[in-house]
Amino acid sequence: MKILVAVKRVVDYNVQLHVKSDGSGVETDGVKMSINPFDEIAVEEAIRIKEAGHADEVLVVSIGSDACQEQLRAALAMGADRALLVKCDRDVQPLLAAKALQALVGQERPQLVLMGKQAIDDDACQTPQMLAGLLDWPQATFASRIVIAGAGKVEVTREVDAGLETLSLDLPTVISTDLRLNEPRYIKIPQIMKAKSKPLQMLDLADLPITETPLLNIVTTSAPEPRPAGVRVGSVAELVDALKEKGVL
């Protein structure tokens, strides 16, 4: 079985974000970039499935600028077998990502596609669902447990509002991963060195048989208003009076 994992280059979650002075977006110059945390969990799960003997190859894919090679090399250091970068110098919106991945699935023929449930830069939470719809494959979102259950079957426990739901799906399928699925492994120096010799293929977005017109237009970006300082009260009665003053009660 081949597993395809989609990864996105995002500003590291530990970085304090700053909006550009012209409001055109978030400042990224000189900022630490990383694999989207949810995607890193997907890479870890794919590697674990392979280590358990249920997969033969883990392919990691990213769509973006040449700088995405850094994140692909990190995924290779984790244990992925090879990487593929679809070079694209414009904003990669969810539908464009889904169509590009659909084309790659047609070329690579994976039996399982894993990706994070959402990216922490736009929080769109759309690409996995769009990809499953374009492929007409079954899907499981927000996975907190994945079990390969015999030939051609996978069981997925997913987090829903009412608790946990377990689905049984036929392969091929698309699964999006949630935070509680696993904890990604620490990458050691020998693994980083070894990853440099693993294959990383590059192709242009124009090489894929897709057409897509951007549907979203970001007019401006602004930082949230500063939150006012909290007020400490000495009793429940004071709390109630304070809330009444603000018109909450």
Automatic annotation (TrEMBL):
Pfam annotation, one family: ETF
Gene3D superfamilies: HUPs (3.40.50.620)
Family: Belongs to the ETF beta-subunit/FixA family.
CDD domains: ETF_beta (cd01714)
Coiled coil: none
SUPFAM superfamilies: Adenine nucleotide alpha hydrolases-like (SSF52402)
Keywords assigned by UniProt, alphabetized: Electron transport, Transport
The Electron transfer flavoprotein alpha/beta-subunit N-terminal domain, residue ranges: 23-212
Annotated protein name in UniProt: Electron transfer flavoprotein subunit beta
